């Protein structure tokens, strides 16, 4: 267990009725409020939230108030990349105990629809996903969460690294879709936090050659540290030409497009070899993106849309456990719960020098340099 972490002595029948939370009232309006905790069920855990990573979607709700059909119509608790410590357990909980370090998978599916029964619960129409309107997130000092979607992390893993399980699971899901394995080449388009963790996932799945691109030098440097063999500065190099040169004119076997940039989504496709596969992870700002259909058909390209993840958290925790030092490199900015607005502003406006921002709902374990 990490130092300086206070462990409350709660029970399932004796805990506060309210907790402090960072609440998005409307665009650019974040306020610290007392919010209701609710009742613990027999399979629930009471979790003291220790670290929450800021995601691009949190920023988008903060500055736009919506993502597609999901609109902030009433106050919403932000945050969904989280880790914490168990401080009370329900009557029928057997896998967890008081004091366990955990991470929380932020989506709770219905468990009964055809998608859930097929193991593709990320596609569940009734999914309740944290910080996606109208479902509250976990930027709170305490949350009640089902044990089924909670996972232990090893004591040697920091809470901050544990919170990376969520974005890494996106990369793991993409890697499995693309069947990344030894002998395969991978191009990761966009070296933001999701792209950098996708590099880590591709490396863990055995990719023989990893190429990454971005417009920011600091992110490209980090991509090399994550496991990229070669990086492409898109402000100076043409992506298609460079990847062709690096693959003897054949193109790469697989692509993970993680930027969501309209031009990057088009260019990434053209880096593929015949029979190649591309997974679109980054969410573009517009609904429709023109793609080169003759290229897709003539090269028999397989295109995958990636929507979150399913059954990937255990693999992500294992990968992080084996890459603790690398994962620490992604952690760049640290804020208290009361500083949530500043954290979102910095993430929104300081992409050049900011990778993963961490908010501490309770004790602040680290501070900015």
TrEMBL record:
InterPro entries: ADH-like_C (IPR013149), ADH-like_N (IPR013154), ADH_Zn_CS (IPR002328), GroES-like_sf (IPR011032), NAD(P)-bd_dom_sf (IPR036291), SDH-like (IPR045306). One of its GO terms (molecular function) is zinc ion binding. Its cofactor is Zn(2+). It comes from the Bacteria. It holds the Pfam family ADH_zinc_N. Residues 193-320 form the Alcohol dehydrogenase-like C-terminal domain. The keyword Zinc applies. Belongs to the zinc-containing alcohol dehydrogenase family. This is L-iditol 2-dehydrogenase. The lineage of its organism: Bacteria, Bacillati, Bacillota, Bacilli, Lactobacillales.
């Amino acid at each position: 267990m990490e130092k300086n972490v206070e462990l409350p002595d709660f029970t399932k029948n004796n805990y506060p009725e309210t907790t402090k939370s960072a609440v998005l009232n409307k665009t650019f309006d974040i306020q610290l409020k007392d919010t209701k905790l609710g009742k613990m069920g027999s399979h629930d855990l009471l979790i003291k939230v220790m670290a929450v990573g800021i995601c691009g979607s949190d920023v988008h709700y903060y500055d736009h108030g919506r993502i597609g059909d999901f609109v902030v119509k009433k106050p919403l608790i932000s945050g969904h990349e989280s880790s914490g410590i168990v401080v009370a357990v329900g009557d029928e909980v057997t896998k967890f105990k008081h004091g366990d370090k955990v991470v929380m998978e932020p989506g709770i599916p219905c468990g009964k629809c055809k998608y859930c029964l097929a193991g593709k619960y990320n596609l569940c129409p009734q999914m309740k996903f944290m910080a996606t309107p109208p479902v509250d997130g976990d930027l709170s000092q305490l949350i009640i969460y089902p044990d089924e979607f909670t996972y232990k992390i090893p004591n040697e893993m920091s809470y901050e690294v544990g919170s990376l399980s969520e974005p890494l699971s996106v990369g793991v899901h993409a890697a499995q879709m693309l069947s990344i394995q030894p002998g395969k080449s991978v191009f990761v388009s966009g070296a933001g936090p999701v792209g950098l963790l996708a590099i880590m996932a591709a490396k863990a799945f055995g990719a023989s050659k990893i190429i990454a691109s971005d417009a920011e030098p600091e992110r490209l440097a980090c991509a090399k540290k994550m496991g990229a063999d070669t990086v492409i500065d898109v402000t100076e190099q043409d992506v298609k030409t460079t990847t062709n040169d690096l693959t003897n004119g054949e193109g790469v076997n697989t692509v993970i497009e993680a930027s969501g940039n309209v031009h990057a989504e088009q260019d990434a496709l053209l880096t593929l070899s015949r029979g190649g596969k591309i997974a679109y992870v980054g969410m573009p700002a517009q609904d429709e993106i023109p793609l080169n259909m003759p290229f897709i058909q003539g090269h028999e390209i397989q295109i995958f849309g990636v929507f979150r993840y399913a059954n990937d958290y255990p693999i992500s925790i294992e990968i992080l456990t084996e890459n603790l030092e690398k994962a620490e490199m992604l952690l760049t900015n640290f804020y208290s719960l009361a500083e949530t607005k500043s954290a979102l502003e910095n993430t929104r406006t300081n992409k050049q020098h900011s990778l993963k921002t961490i908010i501490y709902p309770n004790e602040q374990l680290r501070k900015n340099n």
